[in-house]
Amino acid sequence: MNGHIIGVDIGTSLTKAVVFDRSGISIAEACTPSEVHHLAGGLVEQDLEQVLGTVATVVREVRGQLEGPVAALALTGQGDGVWLRDADGAPVRPAISWLDGRANSLLAKWQAEGVTREVFRRTASGLFPGSAAAILSYLDKHEPESLDRAAVAGYCVDAVLQRLTGEITVDVSDASLPFLNPATRRYDEVAIEACGLTHRRHLLADPARPRTVFRLDARGAELLGLQTGLPVTAGPFDLPACAIGAGVSRVGDGILTAGTTLACQVLTDSPEFDPDGEPAGMFLCTPRDGEFLRAMPAMVGTASLDWACGVLGIEVNQVSPLLAESSPGAGGVRVLPFLSTSGERAPFVDAAARAQFSGLSLESTRADMIRALCEGIAYAARHCFEAAGLSGTLYACGGGVRSAEWTQIFADVLGRPIVLPGEPGVGARGAVLVAGEALGEPFDAELWAANSRTVEVRPENAALYQRGYDDYQAALAAAREQWRL
Q: Coil, strand or helix: which one is 284?
């Protein structure tokens, strides 16, 4: 390939750009924060213009680090939520994040009326307050003028793509939730009708074929400082992109992404599921026909740890030392880690889900509280992977696994070795690998995945964490009987 592919991962709170050589080693990288606006009433919004500015910043920065031409741009980023735009790609209102909780009561109503069950049976995806179905239905009732002004109701990655190329489309992975039938890769009209959105059907862009190549237009070229006509790929979004970038390739393999979302995914070759099971999680279409990711993206990720650090008056870089100060079991402190204002979405959906700390005494320390929270999140990961059907190799990425102590907790609680990719920007890696295939010059994915290390399980903790997980499940079952909006 004559030139470099710039991989851009547009996360919720951070946008990253990474360039890799042919062996998968990063040779240039840049990152910059995005603004996330947490408003009263559980509202969480972002400004598309500010997010576009972060993309321009990181692309221009890595371009300045490179020798030789740029061959393509590969986009990935956060999924879910609703990014409303007009025909020119301008936002008609602030983007509503997947973290948003304005539709909490609506979701509870849908659960009581059987709407979520009906959609799950048709799409294999569980609805939650930050999903497009709930947000669009909420806006249709409370802010219809925004939907009237919009030409498309999409997601972060396709919103950025539209501004860079002028194209209105969506990747099949983003479209997988909430209305796509994963077996046919087409929208299910009955599911749309069940959510009362048939009259807004025109806002849903048709999914592009996997590995579709777009072209940078004059407006996009000026924004990024790149040449007009540069090839651009957009997708899959960050969850499947991380799976591809980490090396997930065999049925049964899984990946744990310990980021803002605690995303647990398992590769499968069949979209079959129990229609009478818990209506949660989602089947994500991948770039390969006949391959899917059974995803359980819980809401209990690193944002919970950030909250705890703020409350306890500690810096994030103190987490690993504190984890080492408290022994496994956290001195008897236990946590149900459901701190998100929009509740939980996997492996169960409950907008009223809330956190609990128990077992505290005058002898409990900050280290015990931090370790109990990290152990509680690890128990949530085990719950998710049991629901998703993990049976093969487990990979991991995200800010949480930068902590060796927390990664060890994950391995011990899950009872599985964890493979950690040796390079940063796993989501961007996945996007670049897909772009290479789309451009007809694929990279050696096995070579890229080989640069990794493995965290082994400490068997001496197995019995303790099995009891801890049993206690977690019992406490969760009791709590679910009490949660109310």
A: strand
Angle between helix 48-65 and 156-165 (nearest 10): 70
pLDDT of 391 reads 97
Which secondary-structure segment (H or E) carries 38?
A: strand 37-39
Q: What is the largest CA-CA distance in the chain?
A: 65
CB-CB neighbours of 256 under 10 Å: 29
3-state secondary structure of 329: coil
**Chain centroid to CA 243: how far?**
11
pTM of the predicted model over 0.85:
yes
| Nearest by Cα to 319 from 264, 358, 375 | 375
CB 155 within 8 A of CB 237: yes
Q: Can you read off the two tokens belonging to residue 179?
A: 């209305």
Distance, CA of 316 to CA of 403 (rounded, Å)? 10
Q: How far apart are CA 135 and CA 394, in angstroms?
A: 33
pLDDT at 174 over 90: yes
Where do runs of H (alpha helix) occur along 186-301? 189-194, 218-224, 238-246
Give which of 337, 333, 287 is closest to 476, Cα–Cα. Answer: 337
The pLDDT value recorded for residue 259 is 92
Instruction: Express each pLDDT in 312-363 by its tens digit.
Output: 999 999 999 999 999 999 999 999 999 999 999 999 999 999 999 999 999 9
Question: Please, what are the domains in the chain?
Answer: 4-240 (3.30.420.40)
Three-class DSSP labels, 426-444:
HHHHHHHHHHHHHCCCCCC
Closest by alpha carbon to 294, among 316, 263, 259, 328?
263
- Give the sign of the dihedral formed by CA 403, CA 409, CA 412, CA 418: negative
Whole-angstrom Cα distance, residue 388 to residue 283? 10
**Closest C-alpha among 445, 433, 182, 432 to residue 294:** 182
Which residue would you say has higher pLDDT here, 245 or 424?
Answer: 245
What is the distance between the alpha carbons of residues 16 and 25, in angstroms, rounded to a whole number?
Answer: 16
Which burial class, exposed, middle or buried, applies to 357 when counting CB atoms under 10 A from its CB (0-12, 13-18, 19+)?
middle
User: H/E element holding 14?
Assistant: strand 14-20
Q: Decide: 215 and 232 in contact? Cβ < 8 Å.
A: yes
The predicted structure's pLDDT at residue 2 = 84
